[in-house]
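Quick question about two entries, pasted in order.
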Amino acid sequence: MKLLLQAVKLIDPRSKYHLDHIDILIEAGIITQIAKKIKALPEYKVFKEKALVSPSWIDTNMHIYEPGLEYREDFKSGLKAAAAGGFGLVCIMPNTNPPVDNNAQLAFIKQAAQHALTEVYPYGAVSHKIEGKDLAEIYDMHEGGPIAFTDGSKAISNAGLLERALLYVKKFKGVILNNPDNRDLSEGAQMNEGINSTVLGMQGAPKLAEELMVSRDLFLLEESQSRLHFINVSTQKSVALIKAAKAKGLAVSAGVNVANLFFDDDELLDYDTNFKVHPHLRNKEDIKALLSGLKDGTIDVICSGHKPLHEDEKKVEFENASFGMSTIDCAFAVSHTATSKVLNEEVLIDKWLKGYELIGLPIPKIEVGERADLSIFNFDEKATFQQKDILSKGKNNPFVGRDLTGTVYGIVKGNKTNIL
């Protein structure tokens, strides 16, 4: 394929063409020319929308439930939705059935996803069967590729297990990801503890459940001098704790889900189960702190937090509904809409690229001779997100009917694209 991108604006501070309007010619998957104007030959496929181009984005928090739970999301549907959402690489949580806790499971995922447009980075589980008791086969899995390990949506509650894992991955400069939630404090909770949980008569989870685990994990990190990433944080105090830890020089990083930037717990007043998520939707002060954390670098990455569920898991009484929100299809537009008053557009794109550093991969280069690995988008176009825009199997997406700013045209990955 010979693909010519005409008059696109490049967003890539690493490139000498940063913020320039340029033409990019891609032949057989390789960038062969970058110039102000490239003549379009008859054999070229030409893309000439008013668009921006950046290195392809990475999502560091996505669930695809193959094998075992494909009724929620399989690789075909999940990766098609991710590509439409502008993501060239997605990091997949290990919460499948069976869990990804050995090399055989890693090999299955790589085989199942090998022909998709969006590439997959599978996290390995920290504990055997994600039961939180014994270490999984971390070193064997590392030899198969991953340097990042997590129990995904399950918090690593056992402090001894987390400490051993931190020390173990230190041998190969790996990283442990944790979902901070002290279940001793949050067990049975349906939403954030506060005025709204009292009004609704629901059991609430105190913010302390997250903050206590963040604090514990940071103590263990300081002791081990390893690397730790908080998958998703949601409270003002969590941000402050992480900021202080970074100031001390600890190798800690953090992410935030798009839902926690966009929604507060007022949304639950109508008992809409699509807003039943984890981490819980907090209040406006917490959102303000999360945005400040993004701006000052305390929070390193924005992630989709994509957790697709079957309608039978959502269209039930609130207390019986499963936690999760389907977001990958609209995550970019949500992030732009939520952060536009705080982050400039270059910083926003950087938050969708920082994940490469987390998993030890270089950010794709937009240079002549490099493999094409691009996200193509527009910051300005406004649209109402609609049900038809959801390509994921998971229809538990509360952004339907919301006005969002930002359009994704698609991605280019080598010799494959979905923009034409």
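Here is the second entry:
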Amino acid sequence: MTKSEIHQQALELPPEERQDLATALWESLEAEPTPLPEWQRRLLDERLAALEEKPEPGAPWDEVEKRIWPEGG
């Protein structure tokens, strides 16, 4: 069976079964983590170094929420 056929069959499942399948697939990825590409590792290292050099305080959730959803969501 091809990946395309599996994909099509999965889309034909009822919503609850698709959700169960998606959860099972996601959990399988957690069990076998994929290594980061080198460019992502460099980017994370750069951001961590910048944070350690000049830490910025976080903001309370209610302030962040107002910036994201200024009209109250």
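Reply: The longest helix spans residues 15-31. The chain has four helices and no strands. Hope that helps.
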